[in-house]
């Protein structure tokens, strides 16, 4: 089984497969519960996991071998601990051991974005690559680093590619300035368009539609997003030398409107670094759940 | 045996030890030969390696089991190829296979900086850490990434931490602007002091001495170096989350004059990232040679 605990929605699935490819046999979606504080939210999340495991157990013809659970925030995969989540409020919560105790199952515990990256690496857009960065671009910009064929977590602190300072000087909620995601996340693009024009938009997809329709303000905001993103990718190219950068999340749905100018910008900025190929994510918002399943299978296989 | 081929000097050593600790039993230093072009330089380097192996063979009481050879530039460790070297001029030269053929020995082939990082990780300043960045600061600034206890090479393209754009805008020889090493390498510090004052200096050590003596120009240049270096380390902290950054090369000899203000600057810049500990390298200019020996031992152990 796989459970992907999101900031607002939790996806659960009964899955079948191998370490190379998993398929969701049966799915459930639930609202992510909120407690009155961080620890009670964490306990409510554990209750939810136990609940969906019980709900899906009868549908599992051959029983459930293990459950993979992924959460956002800072996650220590080795210790099975949710170190910190801004959104959900917990600190150093021992998810893995508690879920194992309550379900009686083998539990793999991981990070939503890194698990999604693992899925893109094993069965999606980064399949066959040894080194890649998978960047889901939504409200913010996260990164899963696939290095020498393995997901690298840095004790839970790696992959904050949205907070690379690319020099534009605008303040970020993280306390720094110039962060990539201030200009290049879906949230940032929508906010900047509104700041510039006074027109409220539902999201970056609307801005993209206006770019296609020839709107000048939308084009300026979009170009600035491309510039920030390209400069962030140049940093990744120099530090990590990935073969590809896989663009995911809501912004990737804009497809060629994103990839074509980004590739051109990269060509202009990169000098001696290896120019990473740009690819679009293949697994959509199922990546985290599929990755959780892969973590569970890996745990069973002892790797 | 271990051979560290430098831009001007090559260090060779007969070594004894384990995968955790090696000791140089007998050493030789030779000038690195130059051919009329890249391929002939590469061939001359192979000749030199064969020559020092022959020279040290009689001193090896129990014979030579393997030789580790490390070179600068872009190196593909997996394929045993020197992909590219600006200084020495070669392209895609199959060092490992040629040296194996000529010496009849098991050969491990690697990158000088990454091998030095491996040595710092196993037996030096980063011992016991799972995640660290080892930064030798000299003419330029390089980086060896220790991730999950292993050296990560990114197909030869990883670790270019000296070319992270930190926004100061000054042009770099690499074709970009704002690179860390333009302001923070020993070479950059000396050059900038001369540009500012018209006074020629032998290197960053002289600038450091003037900072200690209260020279205002030296202090400005030094502060700018600290600032660029700190901003580069913040990027590494967000992308990789290392437990420590190990400062090496000539600039690390300035010790606390480097580490104290750098730590203070980092504290001011870092927000949510894990603040890496700052450490000084422990193995000096022997790191590359000791790392080459470790690569040879690893090759023998089949890891």
From TrEMBL, chains A, B:
One of its GO terms (molecular function) is kinase activity. It comes from Umezawaea tangerina. Keywords: Kinase, Transferase. Signal peptide: none annotated. The keyword Cell division does not apply. Belongs to the ROK (NagC/XylR) family. The keyword Kinase applies. This is Glucokinase. Pfam families: ROK.
């Amino acid at each position: 089984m796989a459970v992907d605990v999101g900031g607002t929605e939790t996806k659960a699935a009964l899955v079948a497969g191998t370490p190379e490819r998993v398929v969701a046999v049966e799915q459930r979606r639930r609202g992510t519960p909120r407690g009155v504080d961080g620890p009670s939210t964490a306990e409510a999340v554990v209750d939810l996991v136990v609940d969906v495991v019980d709900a899906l157990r009868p549908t599992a013809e051959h029983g459930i071998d293990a459950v993979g659970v992924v959460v956002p925030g800072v996650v220590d995969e080795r210790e099975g601990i949710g170190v910190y989540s801004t959104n959900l409020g917990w600190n150093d919560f021992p998810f893995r051991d508690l879920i194992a105790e309550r379900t009686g199952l083998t539990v793999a515990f991981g990070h939503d974005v890194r698990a999604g990256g693992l899925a893109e690496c094993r069965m999606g857009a980064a399949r066959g690559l040894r080194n890649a960065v998978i960047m889901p671009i939504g409200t913010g910009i996260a990164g899963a680093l696939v290095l020498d064929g393995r997901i690298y977590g840095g004790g839970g602190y790696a992959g904050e590619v949205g907070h690379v300072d690319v020099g534009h000087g605008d303040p970020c909620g993280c306390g720094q300035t110039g962060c990539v995601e201030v200009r290049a996340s879906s949230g940032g693009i929508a906010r900047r368009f509104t700041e510039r024009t006074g027109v409220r938009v539902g999201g970056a997809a609307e801005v993209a539609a206006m770019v296609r329709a020839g709107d000048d303000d939308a084009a300026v905001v979009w170009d600035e997003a491309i510039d920030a993103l390209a400069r962030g990718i140049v940093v990744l190219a120099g530090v990590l030398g990935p073969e590809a950068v896989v663009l995911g999340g809501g912004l990737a749905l804009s497809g060629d409107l994103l990839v074509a100018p980004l590739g051109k910008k990269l060509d202009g900025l990169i000098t001696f670094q290896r120019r990473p190929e740009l690819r679009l994510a293949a697994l959509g918002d199922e990546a985290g759940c599929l990755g959780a399943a892969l973590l569970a299978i890996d745990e069973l296989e002892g790797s």
